[in-house]
């Protein structure tokens, strides 16, 4: 419905256009890492939601911050990998996106088997995002333009 689809996807699509320009003007490494950290904050905010409007706002904010990741990541891939391996690097990144979506679909299993509930699942995923942001901050180097 509104929370799962429109609230996230509409802003994600619109903000993605601005995100591309932002990736052209700023450090892509910083953009990607900061976007993951801010996405984690939005996920935690969703876990704290006590009413529909709070949850809706958190999903909108999540869509905004997650829209910033792709343009920075694709730009980094384009500048980091030589033309002979760029398609493979993009394929690995794209596969990671779909693997993440598949993992997200098992959140119901986490809810039931670990007894986390939907709030706990959001906090768990937010924590995992922070770990990934820390790893990305260590491993990603900003290539010269």
Automatic annotation (TrEMBL):
Transmembrane stretches, start-end: 6-23, 30-55, 61-78, 90-110, 122-140
InterPro entries xref list: MFS, MFS_dom, MFS_trans_sf
Domain Major facilitator superfamily (MFS) profile: 1-145
Predominant location: membrane
Compartment list: Membrane
GO CC terms, sorted: membrane
Keywords: Membrane, Transmembrane, Transmembrane helix, Transport
Topological relation to the membrane, as annotated: Multi-pass membrane protein
Protein's UniProt keywords contain Nucleotidyltransferase: no
PROSITE patterns: MFS
PANTHER family found in the cross-reference section: MAJOR FACILITATOR SUPERFAMILY MULTIDRUG TRANSPORTER MFSC
Name the UniProt record assigns to this protein: Major facilitator superfamily (MFS) profile domain-containing protein
Organism from which the protein derives: Pyramimonas obovata
Organism phylogeny: Eukaryota, Viridiplantae, Chlorophyta, Pyramimonadophyceae, Pyramimonadales
């Amino acid at each position: 419905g509104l929370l799962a689809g429109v609230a996230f996807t509409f802003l994600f699509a619109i903000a993605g256009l601005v995100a591309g320009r932002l990736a052209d003007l700023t450090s892509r490494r910083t953009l990607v890492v900061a976007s993951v950290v801010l996405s984690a904050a939005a996920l935690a905010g969703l876990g704290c939601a006590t009413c529909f409007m709070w949850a809706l706002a958190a999903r909108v904010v999540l869509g905004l911050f997650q829209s910033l990741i792709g343009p920075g990541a694709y730009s980094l891939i384009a500048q980091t990998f030589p033309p002979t391996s760029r398609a493979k690097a993009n394929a690995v990144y794209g596969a990671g996106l779909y693997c993440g979506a598949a993992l997200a679909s098992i959140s119901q299993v986490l809810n039931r088997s670990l007894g986390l509930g939907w709030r706990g699942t959001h906090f768990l995923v937010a924590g995992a995002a922070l770990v990934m942001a820390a790893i990305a901050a260590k491993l990603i180097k900003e290539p010269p333009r």
